[in-house]
Amino acid sequence: MSYSKLSPEPIASTLALLGRRIGERFPDSGLRGVAAELALVAAANTVVLEQLRKPLWWLRSLTALTIVALVSLVLWAGLQLFATARGGEASLAEMLQGIDAATNLLILLSIAVIFLVSLEARLKRRTALGMLHRLRSIAHVVDMHQLTKDPEHARHEVAPTPSSPERKLDAGQLARYLDYCSELLALTSKLAALHAQHLSDPVVLDAVNDIETLTSDLSRKIWQKITILDVR
User: Fold this and answer.
1) Which percentage of the chain shows pLDDT scores above 90?
2) Which residues contact 108 (CB under 8 A, 6 or more apart)?
3) Dihedral (Cα; 28, 34, 40, 41), 10-degree rounding
4) How far is CA 103 from CA 26, 49, 86, 106, 138, in A?
5) Are the CB atoms for 51 and 20 separated by under 8 Å?
6) Rounded mean pLDDT of 32-60?
7) Residue 60 pLDDT
8) Residue 90 Cα distances to 45, 74, 87, angstroms
9) Model confidence over 79-136: pLDDT tens digits?
10) Neighbouring residues of 182: CB distance < 8 A, sequence distance ≥ 6
11) Mean pLDDT calculated for residue range 161-181
12) Model pTM?
């Protein structure tokens, strides 16, 4: 077991345990469903990471064939030019026309090689960004669940109004609920960080950093509420 990098399995087991803890304490809460959904996303995230780790051999084979065609074209054009110049069978205009046609084909094949070389990175980037988008969405869902959890109401310092949301949690239960929200955000951040270990794509790294910043900011708001509950 490596202690220098994150692994999907410990994160998944921690998430499963957190889901059971939430279910045992708040069996009818929507937060339990969020934890279950995040567990499913974590399983899908592991599959995606395996896909990102493996080379796309079909694409690399196609790239290699294109490079071989490019090199063959260069050699063929060089041999044809040498044979024509040596035999004196063509005029200067015909030689220049042949060189121009070979150059255009060479440029097209070069562009194809550049496109194919970068295509694998772009395909993996799109796959990673799709998963990171799901994780970002879950972070916002967790934030929605803690949004109406007001510590002042739990301490009975603010009288409810007819339009106030229903609040059934006492101060101790609310502190535990908010703590679970913070843990879900932390695990969401770790699931996103796994992508930074397998891809050095700057776009993916920026997306991972955005999620880490988002979850950190949301967790900071939650701990401010927990701090208020701890004040006696």
Assistant:
1) 38
2) none
3) 180
4) 71, 42, 21, 5, 52
5) no
6) 87
7) 74
8) 63, 20, 8
9) 666 666 565 555 556 556 666 666 776 677 677 777 777 777 888 889 999 999 999 9
10) 219, 222, 223, 226
11) 78
12) 0.75
In this structure, is the dihedral angle defined by the CA atoms of residues 33, 34, 35 and 39, taken in order, positive or negative? positive
What pLDDT score does 189 carry? 95
- Mean pLDDT of all residues in the chain? 81
Domain ranges of the chain: 8-58+124-230
Task: Read off the tokens for 33.
Answer: 């469903």
68, two tokens? 């071989």
Q: What is the pLDDT of residues 182-191, one digit of tens each?
A: 999 999 999 9
CB 144 within 8 A of CB 221: no
C-alpha span between 51 and 53 (Å, rounded): 5
Strand residues in the chain grouped as ranges (E) = none
**Burial (0-12, 13-18, 19+ Cβ within 10 Å), 57:** exposed
Cα gap 64→117, rounded to integer Å: 9
Of the candidates 139, 142, 134, the one whose C-alpha atom is nearest the C-alpha of residue 195 is 134
Whether residue 211 contacts residue 136, with contact meaning beta carbons closer than 8 Å, is answered with yes
